């Protein structure tokens, strides 16, 4: 193992840093240097905040404060190295078992990580979502941790980049390339299926009231296009709020609704029974579908499954094919 210092030194350093942080706040954009005593060999990798992160050559203990990163780690066969995850990390299902058995610890939310808990787990690297913000990253850096920030991908190639770099950090580059290749093959299969088919106009509903939709510059929009759909909100950027009148004026053939733990109640039922949606063609034709939000909004290894689900909702409904996708159909 490359780590030279262990619990005593890192915890002492962490507590000291937490005490002085409020007094000596770091300037924005500063790259923090790590303790030279911590590793006998190391590598430098640039994260999504443009920071040079110093990481031990051998990574054996990993914390992920990002559900997407957690899925990637397990897909790369690194589950046994994961010692801590965020409160929102829920896939694969074995995480719950490992948490229950005490093998993996919960370390807080995106922007509210439990610093002392993270330090006590002695991680070689902490993967954190860009949503957490640079201040959280600075705080973790200042307690002597290697923190690698991963911003939300805006494209599928961005997801592949994250898988590749995480594989490099963990020393499983070949496995990362295999995973990317498998994802590409699944996506190419769907691309071949939709070739020559008429595109279905679609709106992807993140939340119905207030109404939030998927626009351009998101990997979800790219998923829609790969699956053979035409996003009616291609004039919007990112995840945007629009009026119900705007949705009615677009009148898509298909509505896909994000369903999952972030939803309050059944959003499919809400849309089908709300007066504001009743005149939509998709509602009249009962072409409203729910897909697990984590397949559509989590930039991880299951993105190919999300594309397959979208393809099924848009194209298999009128064929004599079995709809073997993760869709809940109204």
Keywords:
disordered C terminus; 5-stranded parallel beta sheet; 13 helices; 330 residues; 2 domains; Rossmann fold; disordered N terminus; 7-stranded mixed beta sheet; elongated; 14 strands; alpha/beta
Identify the overall geometry. Answer: elongated
Average residue-wise pLDDT: 85
CATH superfamily of the largest domain: Nitrogenase molybdenum iron protein domain
State the helicity in percent bands. 25-40%
**DSSP strand (E) fraction?**
15-25%
Number of distinct beta strands = 14
Which residue ranges are poorly predicted, with pLDDT under 50 across at least 5 consecutive positions?
A: 1-40, 318-330
Compute the separation of the termini in Å: 54 Å
CATH T-level fold name of the largest domain: Rossmann fold
> Which H/E pattern describes the elements?
HEEEHEHEHEHEHHEEHEEHEHHEHHE
Provide a count of the helices. 13
| Level-1 CATH class name of the largest domain | Alpha Beta
**SSE class:** alpha/beta
Named at the architecture level, the CATH assignment of the largest domain is: 3-Layer(aba) Sandwich
List the helices and strands and how they pair.
Elements: H1 7-20, E1 42-46, E2 52-56, E3 62-65, H2 67-75, E4 82-85, H3 94-100, E5 105-106, H4 115-120, E6 125-129, H5 134-142, E7 147-150, H6 156-170, H7 173-194, E8 200-208, E9 211-214, H8 219-226, E10 229-231, E11 239-241, H9 244-250, E12 254-259, H10 267-273, H11 281-284, E13 288-292, H12 293-297, H13 303-315, E14 327-329
Parallel strand pairs: 3-4, 3-6, 4-5, 6-7, 8-10, 8-12, 12-13
Antiparallel strand pairs: 1-2, 8-9, 9-11, 13-14
């Amino acid at each position: 193992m490359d780590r030279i210092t262990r619990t005593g030194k890192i915890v002492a350093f962490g507590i000291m840093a937490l005490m002085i942080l409020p007094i000596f706040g770091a300037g924005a954009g500063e790259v923090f240097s790590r303790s030279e005593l911590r590793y006998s060999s190391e590598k430098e990798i640039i994260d999504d905040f443009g920071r040079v992160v110093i990481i031990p050559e051998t990574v054996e203990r990993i914390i992920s404060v990002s559900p997407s990163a957690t899925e990637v780690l397990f897909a790369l066969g690194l589950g046994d190295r994961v010692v801590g995850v965020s409160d929102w990390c829920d896939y694969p299902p074995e995480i719950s078992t490992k948490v229950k058995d005490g093998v993996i610890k919960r370390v807080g939310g995106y922007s509210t990580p439990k610093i002392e808990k993270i330090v006590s787990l002695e991680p070689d690297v902490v993967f954190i979502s860009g949503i957490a913000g640079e201040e959280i990253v600075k705080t973790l850096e200042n307690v002597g941790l290697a923190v690698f920030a991963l911003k939300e991908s805006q494209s599928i190639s961005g997801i592949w980049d994250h898988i590749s770099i995480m594989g490099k950090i963990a020393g499983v580059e070949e496995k990362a390339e295999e995973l990317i290749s498998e994802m590409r093959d699944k996506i190419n299969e769907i691309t071949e299926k939709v070739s020559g088919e008429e595109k279905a106009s679609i709106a992807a509903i993140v939340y119905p009231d207030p109404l939030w939709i998927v626009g351009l510059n998101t990997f979800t929009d790219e998923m829609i296009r790969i699956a053979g759909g035409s996003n009616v909100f291609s004039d919007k950027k990112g995840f945007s709020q629009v009026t119900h009148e705007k949705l009615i004026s677009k009148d898509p053939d298909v509505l896909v609704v994000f369903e999952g733990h972030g939803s309050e109640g059944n959003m499919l039922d809400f849309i089908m029974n709300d007066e504001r949606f009743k005149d939509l063609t998709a509602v009249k034709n009962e072409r409203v579908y729910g897909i697990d939000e984590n397949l559509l909004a989590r930039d991880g290894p299951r993105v190919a499954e999300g594309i397959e689900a979208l393809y099924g909702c848009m194209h298999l409904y009128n064929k004599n094919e079995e709809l073997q996708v993760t869709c809940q159909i109204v």
